[in-house]
Design goal:
- The chain has 499 residues and is an alpha/beta fold.
- It has nine helices and 26 strands.
- Helix 5 packs across helix 6 and helix 6 packs parallel to helix 7.
- The structure holds alpha-L-arabinofuranose.
- The site of alpha-L-arabinofuranose (AHR) has 10 residues, from loops.
């Protein structure tokens, strides 16, 4: 019997709802078809946003959405995406499939989408190929309330009132697709560009996010902070980190989303678990500059990246999502919770039809992936207080070098005083008998919901409900603990009322 120790009296910090954030890029069928179908589409929509997708996203309480990229952000010129649609410039999306981008989804449409979702806005600006003036004017266009050239233009385009920009990214992957820069050079550019990301709204300042490292590039983190930090408060509020899970760890042949064996399953999870070391080591560098943890680590791209589905455009990054992905999501979301003192936002890549999507669409059809269901289980942590907890684990796996702990967990307390525990059982072979013990408190009630299945199980357009959550039984024992048996390959949420 593995023990889960919970000490509800020891709080470890607030779990920002943004830890369950999303990312949507002009890439493949994420924006077009996946989210935006236009007002004249036969697919039911509100102001062009498909209703089925918006409703499914509202269910998991999307807290924040990042847009327009990704690599696309550093090629995006926002003025191409405003004004009458028929007059908007068409361009080639050189990064992603070489398709025509007609700019029918632009700033107004993004803000409308966030309004419908009720989520915060995270705009990623263009440093790689854009000017300081362009970035500055975009911020003015979106947020200035008064008489100014950009505010007037916004009004002419049908939106008199300013919008709120919660987060603004100053460039994306500027070590790579965003300009192939050295960290010192990017750091200098960051200092310059961010100066003109003005706070026009006295009630709500924009959180500015600097481009951070790719995976284990600690040099980038150190040099950017050396160049950028220490310039007064408001200079930067966040530093990003990107890390993708590739089953093979090899960009050439990443591995298939559906065709994999048990060994590859464990290898994938092993790759995912590296996130912990990345958070710790980048966090340790951030601590040297910012011991009070005022700057958030913003993991604004994470998730699985497989070979594209056979027969699909390689530039569209379309992949299926199985129970393995639900576990990847569960592991990561538990880790983000555990490090909520430093990690302030994380955005899964990407929301619809791209990489580890929570939703897939095909014409008018839509399915919720196992990853969607994992987010549905974890949504109860949003805004809660992380509670001290730990679990006894043993190794699971089939090969030396690729063994993983069988269990991961995190526990939070919501405003109403209830505890929310989420656990993953990574083992494919063994159920885990768990006893949850609570320091100095008894348990009044416990309710569980579980997502479990074979490692390759997934939802398709013909069978959209193969993988779904079910009620899960846990018993309150005579000594006031909670006992339950977690089946192999599962993700569970327990809601616990204490006495
Ligand atoms: O999410 C797909 C791409 O991955 C993004 O455009 C880029 O930032 C990253 O390399």
């Amino acid at each position: 019997m593995a023990k889960l120790y919970v000490n509800p009296k020891v709080k470890r910090g607030r779990i920002n709802p943004e830890l369950q954030g999303h990312f949507s890029e002009h890439l493949g069928r994420c924006i077009y078809e996946g989210i935006y179908v236009g007002e004249n589409s036969d697919i039911p929509n509100v102001n062009g946003m498909r209703t089925d997708v918006v409703e499914a996203l509202k269910e998991i309480r999307v807290p924040v959405l990042r847009w327009p990229g990704g690599c696309f952000a550093d090629e995006y010129h926002w003025k191409d995406g405003i004004g009458p649609k028929e007059k908007r410039k068409k361009m080639i999306n050189t990064h992603w499939g070489g398709v025509v981008e007609d700019n029918s989804f632009g700033t107004h449409e993004f803000m409308e989408l966030c309004r419908q979702l009720g989520c915060k806005t995270y705009i990623n600006g263009n440093v790689g190929s854009g000017t300081v003036q362009e970035m500055s004017e975009w911020v003015e266009y979106m947020t200035f309330d008064g008489v100014s050239p950009m505010a007037d233009m916004r009004a002419q385009n049908g939106h008199k009132d300013p919008w709120t920009v919660d987060y603004f990214g100053v460039g994306n992957e500027n070590w790579g697709c965003g300009g192939n820069m050295r960290p010192e050079y990017y750091g200098d550019l960051y200092r310059r560009y961010q100066t003109y990301v003005r706070n026009y709204d006295s009630r709500k300042s924009i959180s500015k996010i600097a481009c951070g490292a790719n995976a284990a590039d600690y040099h980038w983190t150190e040099k950017v902070l050396e160049t950028v930090f220490d310039h007064g408060s408001g200079f930067m509020n966040g530093l990003s980190l990107h890390y993708y899970t590739l089953p093979t760890g090899n960009w050439g042949k990443k591995g298939s989303a559906l065709e994999y064996d048990e060994k590859e399953y464990y290898r994938t999870l092993k790759q995912t678990l590296k996130m912990e070391e990345l958070i710790r080591r980048h966090g340790a560098i951030m601590d040297q500059f910012d011991p009070e943890k005022k700057i958030g680590m913003i993991i604004d791209e994470w998730g699985t990246w497989y070979d594209v589905e056979p027969g699909t455009n390689p530039g569209f990054l379309y992949q299926q999502s199985t129970m393995r992905d639900a576990l990847v999501a569960g592991i990561n979301l538990n880790l983000f919770n555990k490090h909520c003192d430093r990690v302030k936002m994380a955005n899964i890549a990407q929301m619809v039809n791209v990489l580890q999507a929570v939703i897939l669409t095909e014409g008018e059809k839509m399915v919720k992936t196992p990853t969607w269901h994992a987010f549905d289980l974890y949504k109860h942590h949003q805004g809660g207080e992380l509670v001290e907890s730990s679990i006894e684990t043993k190794e699971a796996g089939l090969e030396a070098g690729y063994m993983v702990p069988n269990l991961t967990e995190s526990v939070s307390m919501s405003e109403d005083g209830k505890l929310h525990a989420t656990l993953t059982n990574l083992s494919l072979e063994e159920a885990a008998d768990i006893q949850a013990v609570f320091a100095d408190c008894g348990v009044k009630d416990v309710r569980g919901t579980i997502l479990t299945g074979g490692m390759r199980e997934h939802n398709t357009f013909d069978a959209p409900d193969e993988v779904h959550t079910r009620d899960f039984a846990a018993q309150i024992t005579a000594d006031g603990s909670v006992a339950f048996k977690l089946p192999p390959c599962s993700v569970v949420h327990l809601e616990i009322a204490l006495v």
